[in-house]
Design goal:
The chain is α+β, with helices and mostly antiparallel strands. The chain is 68% helix and 9% strand. It has a six-stranded antiparallel β-sheet, with helices on one face. The chain has a six-stranded mixed β-sheet with strand order 10-14-15-3-16-17, sandwiched between helices. Strands 11-12-13 form a three-stranded antiparallel β-sheet. The longest helix is centred in the middle third of the chain and has 78 residues, at 588-665. The chain is flat and about 195 Å long. It starts with a strand and ends with a strand. The relative contact order is 0.14.
């Protein structure tokens, strides 16, 4: 990967667009980014990280203040990074989220973050992605490095340079895990542990199942006394000393005894069942004979009763014979009666009709006298023809009121249409003024509602200020307590320093006495070599080396506590300053008042939006109402014209009807009255004619029926019609007589047959006693039921014991195989997790990372040997840490001058820089190889060259010269004057008097 160009605008300390052409340094290969402290040198590397990854490493976990504080609200913030890889040449443009002026109304609005990726194809930039998520996915494929890898192999950022060298095993493991993606090995370990626990649980569950089944079986054996004759010899104690196999063998023997007992109980059950069956058969035979005795006695009584009913059945037979003879005359008798009654009724009707006709025809000379039916019908037909012409006039007479009402209705509709049209025309004339007034109201509401977006921003800003004011008040209170803590820690550190110095001084002062105590008469002094010790010094104030070491450790701990308290105070001051910036000079009370006011204005704007929408709806309703009124007025005009036409037509129809009705009335009050009178006369004439004809016909029929009746009686066994009528019976009565006679005969035949069969069996006359048979059957049934229960219990016990033994034996067999598998899995899980025989206590991930670390250390030593003139060499240490701390990824320094290894923390500042640089370059080489062997053509180093002396700085410069071999470009951030003299290609970051910084070549 190679960087070509960087453009920064409104980012960090840079306000106006600043451009860096990295290709200009390709020939030199090494360039310096210089400038005074705080000018913004490291912000260049921040911009590179932000452009490629959308993140800045030194802002991790805190507020990302990416936008320049020098920007005005309308100033843009943007970073453009142009780079190339083996995949091609690309340009990424990225902007953070910030506040900008709203396009409508006043106030600020949020400008969303944005990103775009372009590719140079054929000399033209072609867009590849325009959304942040798409840009991130594309860059992952193009760069093949995540942010953590990028910060270790390309951009060695300030504050991260020596972290890898000085970290403990746990911190180093966390960093290496992100770089090499070894988190999967931790997943392997977790899955192995999960499988081990599952196997252990399954094995325990299987063993528990075996023991539970064995204990259940032993309890079943004990409860049912299945131990056998030699119970003491067969019983196996169910305790921990008895093996499962021995207990299973004993239970199998008990199972055989249970099967034998079950077979015995089944034989006893079969014998009891046979005895019960014989007793049941004997009881059934006795009950059947007792039933036959009862049936014989009943048949004798029934036959006697049937013989007693013989006289009544003979009388019924005679009645049935007379009824059948009279049934042949039923039709003739009924016909004679009906015709005689009809003739009498017809004569009465004719007499009433004649009297009615004479009353109606009185005074009418043209009406017939009523003696001839034919004359009456002729006269009625003539009158019907005359009244037919009056029917239409009668209908017209009934419609006169309707015609008069139609005239009135038409006049009413004509007047109503005219009145409605006048009302709607007046309402339509008032609409334009109402529409104009409502339009003005709507426009005013819209102007007030347009401020909603600006007021939303104002509310958000007021909320931020209130939060800042509250945070500032809280941090101010906290600061007093932290200041007291700092003062306390400084006093404790001063006391610890004084005590350590006093103990060191007292030890130095008493060193002669300590040496004198070690003198032995006749042996040489370790200081002067003399064997004589005439005046050894006294050891009056003894102070041991352990006392001094303990005081020194206490001093260091107190110093560290001071540093921690100071850092806490500085962090609190930073938070207080940030809160003050957010509060923008407001107190909590002022900020709360501003927030309340802003929310009130926002609510008013929201209400105006709602009111404007309602006004727009009312305006649309008014305009629609005008259209509807125009249509209504046109419709009313048409209705008025139609009503006028209906008035003229209704008047014409009424005059014609009145003329035709007057002609048809004659001397009557109405046409209907004249028609009704004619109808009465016609009805009376027709009724009399019909009655005369009916009377004559009924008389003839009665005479014929009477002659036929007399002839039939002569041929029958009856003397007259009265006797024949008395013998008649209804069909139901005849059927009843027949059924009663037949039933009596059938019942007598049946009872005689039953009695004959029973008499042939020669049953005793005394009732048979069933008690002895019932007692014998009950005793046999009880014995059989008990035998069935005993056999069922024996079968159930044998089956239950057999099932328990089969389950226990099968589970015991499976458990043996599972135990062997579990042992293998246990050893494998312990090895992967660093337990058991793993003496280094190193898990699988640490083991893999240790191999990677060995490669990193080997690559670093190639450079460190040259930079330290062969004195120092890094070594991977897999020594176990104290008190169970994480280990396996340690780094120690081998010092060739002493031949000993020592911790990396013991190096001086310059030595730490050289070791960190060598380790960082070695790490970069290994990570590059692991990332697919990508080519790294650009490298940045932002770390303390100022800690090196002149000679060591020359060595570091030679190393940097080696890095640019092969066309690589190396950028170094430093303000060391010697480096400015040795590196001709430079970029200077300078802060202007107005505040923003600029980049100068």
């Amino acid at each position: 990967m190679q960087l070509h160009r960087l453009e920064i605008e409104g980012f960090g300390p840079f306000l106006r667009r600043q451009t860096i052409d990295f290709d200009a340094f390709a020939d030199d290969g090494l360039f310096l980014i210089g400038g005074r402290t705080g000018a913004g040198k490291s912000s260049i590397l921040d911009a590179v990280c932000f452009g490629l990854y959308g993140n800045v490493p030194r802002y991790e976990g805190g507020e990302k203040r990416l936008r320049s504080d020098h920007c005005e609200p309308a100033d843009p913030t943007e970073v453009v990074v142009e780079f190339s890889t083996v995949a091609g040449r690309f340009r990424v443009t990225r902007s953070p989220e910030y506040q900008r002026p709203a396009k409508r109304g006043g106030g600020l609005t949020k400008q969303a973050s944005a990103a775009a990726l372009d590719e140079l194809v054929g000399g033209n930039w072609i867009g590849r992605a325009a959304r942040e998520v798409d840009v991130a996915h594309e860059l992952d494929e193009i760069l093949q490095l995540n942010l953590q890898q990028f910060l270790q192999v390309i951009l060695l950022a300030q504050g991260r340079f020596a972290r890898f060298l000085l970290a403990d095993s746990r911190e180093r493991q966390s960093l290496l895990r992100r770089l090499f993606g070894t988190g999967r090995f931790e997943d392997y370990q977790a899955r192995f542990d999960e499988r081990r626990r599952a196997s252990e649980q399954a094995l325990g569950a299987g063993r528990a199942t075996v023991m539970a089944r064995v204990e259940q079986a032993e309890q079943l054996v004990a409860e049912n006394d299945l131990h056998g004759a030699s119970a003491g010899a067969e019983t196996v104690p169910a305790d921990a000393d008895a093996s499962v196999d021995a207990r299973l063998d004993a239970l199998h023997r008990a199972g055989a005894r249970a099967d034998y007992r079950s077979e015995q109980r089944r034989q006893e059950r079969d014998l009891a069942e046979a005895a019960h069956r014989a007793a049941t058969t004997a009881l059934a035979a006795a009950r059947e004979e007792r039933q036959a005795q009862t049936e014989r006695d009943r048949a004798r009584a029934a036959l006697a009763a049937l013989d007693a009913e013989a006289l009544r059945i003979a009388a019924d037979r005679r009645t049935l014979d007379d009824a059948r003879a009279a049934e042949a005359l039923r039709h003739v008798l009924r016909t004679a009666e009906r015709t005689a009654a009809a003739a009498t009724a017809a004569t009465a009707v004719a007499t009433e009709a004649e009297a009615a006709w004479r009353g109606i025809a009185a005074g009418d000379d043209q009406a017939p006298d009523g003696s001839s039916a034919e004359a009456l019908r002729t006269w009625a037909s003539d009158l019907i023809r005359a009244s037919g012409a009056w029917q239409q006039a009668a209908a017209t007479e009934g419609q006169l009121a309707g015609h008069e009402a139609a005239v009135k209705t038409a006049l009413s509709e004509q007047a109503a249409a005219a009145a409605d049209r006048a009302i709607h025309e007046s309402e339509r004339a008032a609409l334009p003024a109402a529409i104009d007034a409502l339009t003005a109201e709507r426009d005013d509401l819209r102007r007030r509602a347009d401020r909603a977006a600006d007021l939303e921003t104002a509310v958000a800003s007021a909320a931020v200020r209130l939060e800042g004011a509250r945070d500032a008040a809280a941090r101010t209170q906290e600061r007093s307590a932290v200041e007291r803590t700092v003062a306390d820690r400084e006093q404790e550190a001063a006391a610890a320093f004084a005590r350590a110095a006093d103990l060191r001084r007292r030890r130095d002062a008493g060193m002669a006495g300590e040496l004198a105590e070690a003198l032995i008469p006749g042996e040489a002094c370790s200081v002067c070599g003399s064997t004589e010790h005439p005046a050894p010094a006294a050891h009056a104030d003894p102070v041991s080396a352990d006392d001094v070491a303990e005081a020194t450790d206490a001093r260091e701990r107190a110093t560290e506590l001071v540093r921690a308290a100071t850092r806490a105070l500085a962090a609190l001051d930073a938070e207080l300053a940030a809160a003050a910036v957010r509060a923008d000079g407001r107190t909590v009370e002022t900020a709360e008042a501003e927030l309340v006011a802003a929310r009130a204005e926002q609510d008013a704007a929201s209400a105006a939006q709602t009111a404007a929408a309602e006004a727009e709806q009312r305006l649309a309703e008014l305009r629609g109402k005008g259209v509807r009124l125009d249509a209504t007025i046109a419709d009313l005009s048409a209705r008025h014209a139609e009503a006028s036409e209906r008035v003229v037509l209704a008047r014409q129809v009424l005059a014609t009807a009145q003329e035709s009705v007057a002609q048809a009335r004659g001397a009557f009050d109405s046409v209907a009255a004249r028609i009704d009178d004619a109808a009465v006369r016609i009805s009376a004439a027709n009724a009399l004619a019909t009655a005369l004809d009916e009377s004559e016909a009924r008389a003839e029929s009665a005479a014929a029926a009477l002659a036929e009746q007399q002839e039939a009686l002569t041929a029958s066994p009856f003397d007259d019609a009265t006797a024949a009528g008395a013998a008649l019976r209804s069909p139901a009565d005849q059927v009843g007589l027949e059924e009663r006679i037949a039933a009596h005969a059938a019942e007598r035949t049946k009872e005689r047959a039953i009695l004959l069969d029973l008499e042939l069996r020669t049953l005793p006359d005394e009732p048979i006693d069933l008690a002895p048979h019932e007692s014998a059957e009950s005793t046999a049934r009880i014995a059989w039921t008990a035998a069935v229960d005993a056999a069922s219990r024996a079968d159930a016990i044998a089956a239950q014991l057999r099932a328990l033994l089969e389950t226990a034996a099968a589970e015991h067999s499976r458990g043996a195989a599972a135990a062997a598998d579990h042992e293998v899995l246990q050893q494998l899980a312990d090895a992967v997790a660093g337990r058991g025989a793993n003496t280094y206590r190193m898990n699988l991930e640490t083991f893999v990372l240790a191999a990677e670390l060995e490669e990193i250390v080997a690559a670093a030593n190639l450079r460190l040997a040259d930079m330290s003139s062969g004195r120092y060499q890094l070594q991977h240490s897999d020594a176990r840490a104290a008190r169970g701390a994480a280990s396996g990824l340690g780094i120690v320094v081998f010092d060739a001058f002493t031949g000993q290894t020592r911790p990396a923390q013991s190096l001086s500042g310059g030595e730490t820089f050289l070791g960190s640089l060598a380790l960082a370059l070695g790490l970069a080489e290994v990570v590059t190889a692991r990332a697919g062997g990508i080519q790294l053509d650009t490298l940045f180093i932002d770390e303390g060259f100022g800690s090196l002396d002149g000679e060591t700085l020359d060595v570091a410069m030679r190393t940097l010269d080696e890095l640019r071999a092969g066309g690589r470009t190396v950028g170094v951030i430093s303000h060391v004057e010697a480096m400015k003299e040795q590196i001709p290609a430079q970029i200077t970051v300078r802060a202007t008097p107005d505040g923003p910084s600029v980049i100068e070549p």
